[in-house]
Amino acid sequence: MSLIKVFNFTTCLMVMAGALSLAVAEESLTYTTIILVGVITSYFWVEEKKVFYLSERLKTPLTIIYLLFAFLDMSLFSRSFVMTLAHLLLLIQLTKLLGKKSDGDYFQIYLISLALLIVAAVITVELYFFFFFIGVVIFGSVALALFQIKRQAPSENLPPGTFLGATICPAISVLIFTTFLFFLVPRIGFGFLQRNFKGPSLTSGFSEEVELGAIGSIKEGYEVVMRIKPGKTAKRLPEARLWRGIALTDYDGGKWRVDSNKIKRVRANKKGVITLKEVDGQNLYWEEVILNPMDSKVIFVPYQTSYIQSDLPIIEVDNTSSLFGPGPHYRGREYSIYLLPGEEKQTFLAGGEESCLRLSHPFTRVRELASKITQGTHDPWEKGKRIEAYLKNNFGYTLKLTQSRGLDPVEDFLFNRKKGHCEFFASAMVIMLRSLNIPARVVNGFLVEEWNDFGGYYLVREKDAHSWVEAYIAGKGWIVFDPTPPQAGFWLRDTLFPLVYQLYDYLELNWDSYVVAYNIWDQRRMVQSLLDTQNRLLVWTETQLRALVDHISRVEFSTSIFLLTSLILFVFGLLYRACRLPFSLKRHPGVTKFYLRLLSILARKGISKERHLTPWEFAQQVIDEKGDKFACVGLITQRYYQSRYGGYRLSQNDLKQIDDLLKGLVTL
């Protein structure tokens, strides 16, 4: 295969890896398209077919246009100096790709790719950055090595396959060394220039408020919100579970809010454990929660949670049993929960029922409907079950929102549309219960059911956000009702390669745990683990050496010397084989010697090689200036290239021929 083709292809791959890392990090389809079109044009039409080159005359006007675009980008679009500079570098790189390139242009292209990768590292912490980083390192190492050969070797032939292996070896060494540095010096940044490049949209997900009456189509978000790892003794549960977030009590005719209720602060003990309710610890099982960054300070827990262990000094509990941290989880949160297994029909036995009877207006039609559904029973729990069944069996689930003007969203849902999402079902049931003088409230949280077989944990996404009902039943406490019918949704990832998505998420979890969140405490644990391993290794080595000495003392001296010598030779043989790189480009002494002899002879004749010239360029210069009688310089240089770069082993006849040519050159 042609050296030039491989060089151009590798260069394009490096450019794509660096530029796409930036485009994907800022989630820009525009720049992704520009990159793909520019690289494909450069490879096929500029380098391969050579039918198109960007004129040198156009570069100055393009530079002015780029500067104007940078001003607009800074003022209107990205509004970030770092991103504006990155976009400007990207455009400059594409301009160089589409024009005739000098050696300096190639180096600038490589440096820009590295700069774009660094910017991407600043604005994202996602797993895909790792793959782009690997691509830039490997493709960059190969491209630089091929670039050096292309500068010096006139041949169009690709170096031996072992050469490509030798170029990838330094790349792997760089990765290993970089990994060592990373774990030696913990990361202190966390995407401090991270921005939101998406426009506003209706997306399913957790909210601390419920707003009814919006018009449009809600998009199901598939971003991961949290992961839940059961303890060693716990396993996947057969049914989905409700994880409680926040209870909403005040309804104003279109929006549910939290009442300005009392807050109680619960402090953690010395072990970081916060007690929600005292129970017998023998029957508890625990789960570890890994919460992704979110703009909310709600602590999510399942029902029957008794203890929470985390790095939080306090947790706030309101009079609806909702739990809050001291601030939003901008950097994510990790905590463990301890709970009693059992039916999730009850909250933490808190009060607050007095605030859960208020209605924004009489809701006469709703009261009449609720009375009709619950006719014949005086049991509040039975009334709740009947209303729950009525909504599940007579209404449909949809994410497409419509609204009749002049009507309360709940009344419009019950008497006109009869379709909605979980917030409408929960709101309707709460209003119906309150109209019957039964305290009730809307609860927002998550319905946890997706299981990852690779990591053995639950996966919670934005689309799993859910609303349900808690009703206060005298003598029983707060009881959970879920009037939303089963969703008939279709998720592509549930049907196509689910194991692939589970594996990727498992890798992403480890990336977040051991790379993104790596800190000084993790470093200390790692160093301590290495020291423990070292101590065990030293003890094992000492034991083996003592056993070897005891064994040697039992055999004859000559036999001991023979065994020891054989062992030393064997070890040196292994080291020699390990250190010897058959694919390396070693400087053959014979090759260097005859070429240095050629340069010495020419220097005595007043012909000196300038440092910026390659051997082949120097040979052509000598022949052009001195004529065909110096053609032997070209033949000797050709042999030099064949032996040093082409893997050609010179025979005795070749060496004799070179010696004769050098002797003839002396006589000229």
Could you characterize what this model shows?
This protein has 4 domains: 182 residues, no CATH class; 301 residues, no CATH class; 60 residues; 79 residues, no CATH class. It contains 19 helices and 22 strands. The protein has a 7-stranded antiparallel beta sheet with strand order 8-11-14-9-3-20-19, with helices on one face. Strands 10-4-18-21-22 form a 5-stranded antiparallel beta sheet, covered by helices on one side. The longest helix has 34 residues. The protein is elongated and about 125 Å long. The relative contact order is 0.08.
Number of helices: 19
Spatial gap, N to C terminus:
40 Å
What kind of oligomer do you see?
single chain
Counted beta strands:
22
Parts with pLDDT < 50 across at least 5 consecutive residues: 189-203, 489-493, 581-589
Helix content estimate = 40-55%
Rg calc: 36 Å
If strands are numbered along the chain, what order do they take across the biggest sheet?
8-11-14-9-3-20-19
Give the averaged pLDDT, no decimals: 81
Major β-sheet profile? 7 strands, antiparallel
Secondary structure class reads: alpha+beta
Overall form: elongated
Total count of domains: 4
Strand share of the residues?
5-15%
List the helices and strands and how they pair.
Blueprint: H1 3-25, H2 29-48, H3 56-77, H4 81-97, H5 103-123, H6 128-152, H7 161-184, E1 210-211, E2 216-217, E3 224-230, E4 241-248, E5 250-251, E6 255-257, E7 263-267, E8 273-275, E9 285-291, E10 301-302, E11 305-309, E12 314-318, E13 323-324, E14 333-339, H8 364-373, H9 380-394, E15 396-397, E16 400-401, H10 409-417, E17 419-420, H11 422-435, E18 440-448, E19 450-452, E20 457-461, E21 465-473, E22 477-481, H12 492-495, H13 498-516, H14 520-553, H15 557-579, H16 589-604, H17 615-626, H18 631-644, H19 652-667
Parallel strand pairs: 15-17
Antiparallel strand pairs: 1-6, 2-16, 3-9, 3-20, 4-10, 4-18, 5-6, 7-12, 8-11, 9-14, 11-14, 12-13, 18-21, 19-20, 21-22
